[in-house]
Amino acid sequence: MKTVKSVLSQEIRKVCLSTWPQLQDQSFSVALDYPKEAKHGDYATNVAFQLVSLLGESPMVIGNKIITGGLKISGVDRAEVLPPGFINFYLNPSWLGKRINLILAEGKDFGNSKLGKGKKVQIEFISANPTGPLHVGNGRGAFTGDTLANVLTKVGYKVQREYYVNDIGKQVDRLAESVTRRYLQQQKISVDFPDYCYQGKYIDKLAKKLNLHKYKLTNINLLKARIKYRALQMMIKDLKKIVTEKLKIDFDNWFSEKSLYKAGTVDNMLHILKKQDLLYKKEGAIWLKTSQFGDEKDRVVIKADEKQTYFLSDIAYLWDKLAVRKFDKVIDIWGADHHGYVKRMMAVLEALGFAGKFDVIIVQLVRLMEGGVEIRMSKRSGTYVTLESLVDEVGLSAARYFFLMHAADTHMDFDMTLAKKKSEKNPVYYVQYAHARICSIMKKVQKEIKIEKKKNLPKTIYLRENPEINLAKTLIQFPEVLEAVAQNYQVNKLPLYASELATAFHNFYNKCRVIEAEGVNNSRLRLIEASQIVLAETLKVMGIEAPTKM
């Protein structure tokens, strides 16, 4: 089912090209938005402003020529141009009734589309180092990535979720040393525990789980070599368990960084870069010519001591995704501390011929609040709230909804006090309550219909009252919201839409009766059935429970 936005956009473009043939060779877009005020219609476009420089006429003149140039769109009652030149469209209530029937016919498939055309997309997210528990900040990337994957799948992409496991390097060595020293201390062997070691209580637990014989070794390096692999595997196992069982995220692939070296991918990458004349030697190091492709400066891939940099393995990893596994698009979700890394990666991909195939979503920092007071956290000292404990405290649905409410590129406060409230002040409770209320009405209505011996109800839907019409208009926006998120990755549009839909339903419920004195109002019954479908699908895409009672 085509969205109203897509139909309007196509028809407006068609009229523009017919009215002004000279626009055939010009580039212009027909974007549509929802007006903030109902009196300004249901959809609006600013296309007239875009055409001013191309046509040399005022927006008002251009707008009027568009709506009088044969613009005929099914479902649109009327169109008008308002100063300074916006074109507003008003939907027909009887046509809305037909769209509600389409929602009922499509059921759970409502919102599905072929926008993605089956293209292969990989989303890599979380990818936190397996050297410590997931913290609250990881929640933004976790739920953003999982929700985006759900959306892209629903609109026709083939999506793979991937977790990149950093299982080599200095941080893994530090984990091994931290566990080793703690293990020795537990064996009553006197060793210090420097500040550079990981300080969290999880280190104590790892050391206790080792189940080694009571080594009486004073050579820490020898014992560390024995412990390193075991400690890392225990961390990865715990990480997978939390992600799968607590966060309900199923990754299709857990990709080992170490495998890039074992398979020779990193060495091969160096050979490819050299072959394409992208490397040069300076001050004993080997540099990559990223500044020629938009980066601020060139970057080192081999240091003067002949050690490879993380940048080289990162390039090899992206090469593996795009050149070897041949994804049509790769989307990475990174923390705020990786912001400066974006330009150099984009520069490399342009140099290798993959420009436009890689997108990065940067998620900003999270401040955890309780009772209006910030909960101070420090990863260095090991005093931080784990994502697992937060989910246990507020529930998975609340955690997901609260993280998704905010645009990824903005700082956010996570209000634990509000997230735990069982009232309409809690946004996720408010939305879930709308679904539960629908289910309650449906249950009562089914009894009423049974009493009436399930007589054949007419399929024509009549929408007469404003609350009915507004609810119907909100329902048909769902596919448009999905397509917008698929294109701009702004998953915060989903909880915003869910809230607007819940508000529209609550308003309808308070002003329009489904069971009247003379029996069931068929049009309203079908409207709430459609509401149940759309609200449940909206929550499902966000990974949030749709309760039948509360």
What is the percentage of strand-forming residues? 5-15%
Any low-confidence stretches, pLDDT <50, length ≥5?
A: none
Number of domains: 3
- Largest sheet, spatial ordering of strands: 7-6-5-11-12
Radius of gyration: 28 Å
Task: Name the CATH architecture of the largest domain.
Answer: 3-Layer(aba) Sandwich
Instruction: Calculate the mean pLDDT score and round it.
Output: 93
Please report the number of helical segments.
Answer: 21
DSSP strand count: 17
Overall spatial form: globular
What is the CATH topology descriptor of the largest domain?
Answer: Rossmann fold
* Largest sheet report: 5 strands, parallel
CATH superfamily of the largest domain: HUPs
Distance between the termini: 33 Å
Fraction of residues in H or I helices: 40-55%
CATH first level of the largest domain: Alpha Beta
Class from secondary-structure proportions: alpha/beta
Structural write-up:
The protein is α/β, with parallel strands linked by helices. It has three domains: 4-91, Arginyl tRNA synthetase N-terminal domain (Gyrase A, domain 2); 96-115 and 424-542, Isoleucyl-tRNA Synthetase, Domain 1, CATH 1.10.730; 125-253 and 364-416, 3-Layer(aba) Sandwich (Rossmann fold), CATH 3.40.50. It contains 21 helices and 17 strands. The protein has helices at residues 4-19, 47-50, 52-55, 59-67, 93-106, 138-154, 170-186, 201-209, 220-246, 257-262, 265-275, 310-324, 342-352, 387-394, 396-404, 416-419, 427-451, 466-475, 478-488, 493-511, 522-542, and strands at 32-33, 43-45, 76-82, 86-91, 120-124, 158-165, 253-256, 279-282, 285-288, 299-302, 329-335, 358-363, 366-370, 373-374, 412-415, 515-516, 519-520. The strands form five sheets. Strands 7-6-5-11-12 form a five-stranded parallel beta sheet, sandwiched between helices. A four-stranded antiparallel beta sheet has the order 1-2-4-3. It has a three-stranded antiparallel beta sheet with strand order 8-9-10. β16 (515-516) and β17 form a beta hairpin. It is globular. It starts with a helix and ends in an 8-residue tail after the last helix.
